Amino acid sequence: NVEGIGPGSSVENTGAPLKIRVDAGLLGHTLDGLGRIDGQEPSTGAEYAVEAMPPDPMSRKIIDEVLPLGVKAVDGLITVGKGQRIGIFAGSGVGKSTLMGMFARNTRADINVIALVGERGREVLEFVEKDLGEEGMARSVLVVATSDQPAMLRKKCPTVATGIAEYFRDQGLDVLLMMDSLTRFAMAQREVGLAVGEPPVARGYTPSIYAELPKLLERSIPDGVANPDYEAALTAFKAHYAEHCEDKTGPYEGVPEMLAGLKEQGYHLAVVSNKFDGAVKKLCKKYFGEFISVSIGESEEVKRKPAPDTVYRALRELGCDASHAVYVGDSEVDIQTAKNASLPCISVTWGFRTEEKLRDEGAPEHMMIRTPRELVPLLARLREEG
C-alpha cells in the first residue's frame, strides 16, 4: 500500500535486493506479491532473492524425462518434459484456469507454485475452491496480487513465485510453476514504466517491458537464452500481446444502457480509479465516451483511493456540489472512499467483490444493487428522500 507516501517521506536503502523466506511450511498457503502470509513475512526458512539470475546453461540437465500432467489430451498430444515450458493462449472464459487446476491436481510433479497476477479478488477464491480444490491446494503455493493492488506488487508477484519454485527445485524436488498471466505482468510493468516517465512505444507500452519479460522467461525456459526456443517464445508472446492486450477489457453487460439512461435523465457522470490515469482515460473514451465526460486515474497529482482526492477533483471538473453527488463502486476501497468524501455509496455486486464481502465491509442492504438496471430507480428514490 503506497497510501501516505510522497515528497518528504524517508527512504532507507537496505543494501540488498528483495528477499523472501521459503520452506516447506508454505505449502497449502496463499502469499501476497511480496511473499507474505496475512501481511507478515514467514518467520522461518531460507532466504531467496526475488530477482535471481538464471542458472548457468552449461549446468542444466537436458530434457530427456517426461513430466505427466495428468490430462490425457496434453500428455498424449503435446507431451511435456521435465524442465520444459508451455504457453496456454486463449480468450476469456474458455477454461485456462480450469486446465491449470487440472494440472495442479493430477501432475506427477512434487509441488505446484502458482502465480495469479491481476486477477479480480472474487476470482481468486473461485480458483482455489473450484479449480484447484483441496487436493491441489495441499501441495501448492499460491502467490497472488489482485487487480486492485499497486502495479509494483503485481509486477513482483511472478518473480516471487519463481523464487519460491527455485527454492523447491534446489531441494531436489520436481516443481510445476504456473502463472496467469504474462499479459497482466506486462500491463503492471507498463504502469510502473509510465509512472517513472518512460516514453510509450508500441501500443502505449514502455521499453522496460521488453527488458523485464526476457528476464522472467530466462528463469523459466531451460538453458535460458541459449535455448533455440527462447527468441521464438519471446517473439510469439510479443506478437500475441500486441494483438490481444485489450481482450479482457470491456463493459459489464447492461452498463452502457445504464449510462445512457443516466445521461438522458441529466446526471453528470465521472469515473475515478486507482489504475494508471492514461489507461483510465483511454478506456473510458473507447467504451463510454458518449456518456462520461470526466475520468481520473492514478497520477502524481492526486492521492489514490480511499483518499477522497480523486472524487473532489471529479466534482470540480463536473461543476457539481458534493451535497448532490452519489458514489457508485464495487469494493471495500470504494466504500471507504465514499465515506472519506462524505458521500452516500451504492455498492454493486456484479463487479470486483462479492455481495457477501461488500456486506461484511458495511454496505447496507438498501444501498446494494445486483444488476445495472436497478441503479436509476434507486437514484430516483434517494432523490425523493432528499
Task: Give a structural overview.
This protein has 13 helices and eleven strands. Helix content is 40%, strand content 13%. The chain has helices at 72-77, 96-106, 121-138, 151-170, 182-195, 209-220, 229-244, 255-264, 277-288, 309-318, 332-340, 355-360, 375-385; strands at 19-22, 30-31, 46-49, 111-117, 140-145, 175-180, 270-276, 294-298, 327-329, 345-348, 368-369. The chain has 386 residues and is α/β, with parallel strands linked by helices. The chain has a four-stranded parallel β-sheet, with helices on both faces. 31% of the residues are buried. The chain is globular.
Question: What order do the strands of the largest sheet run in, or round the barrel if closed?
Answer: 2-5-4-6
Oligomer: single chain
Percent range for helical residues?
Answer: 40-55%
Structural class: alpha/beta
By DSSP, the count of extended strands is 11
* pLDDT averaged residue by residue: 81
Globular, elongated, flat, extended or rod-shaped: what is the shape?
Answer: globular
Strand content: 5-15%
Distance between the termini: 37 Å
Count of DSSP-assigned helices = 13
Radius of gyration: 23 Å
List low-confidence stretches. none
Brief rundown of the structure:
The chain contains 13 helices and eleven strands.
Descriptive keywords:
386 residues; alpha/beta; 4-stranded parallel sheet; 3-stranded parallel sheet; 13 helices
Spell out the blueprint of helices and strands.
Layout lengths: L18 E4 L7 E2 L14 E4 L22 H6 L18 H11 L4 E7 L3 H18 L1 E6 L5 H20 L4 E6 L1 H14 L13 H12 L8 H16 L10 H10 L5 E7 H12 L5 E5 L10 H10 L8 E3 L2 H9 L4 E4 L6 H6 L7 E2 L5 H11 L1
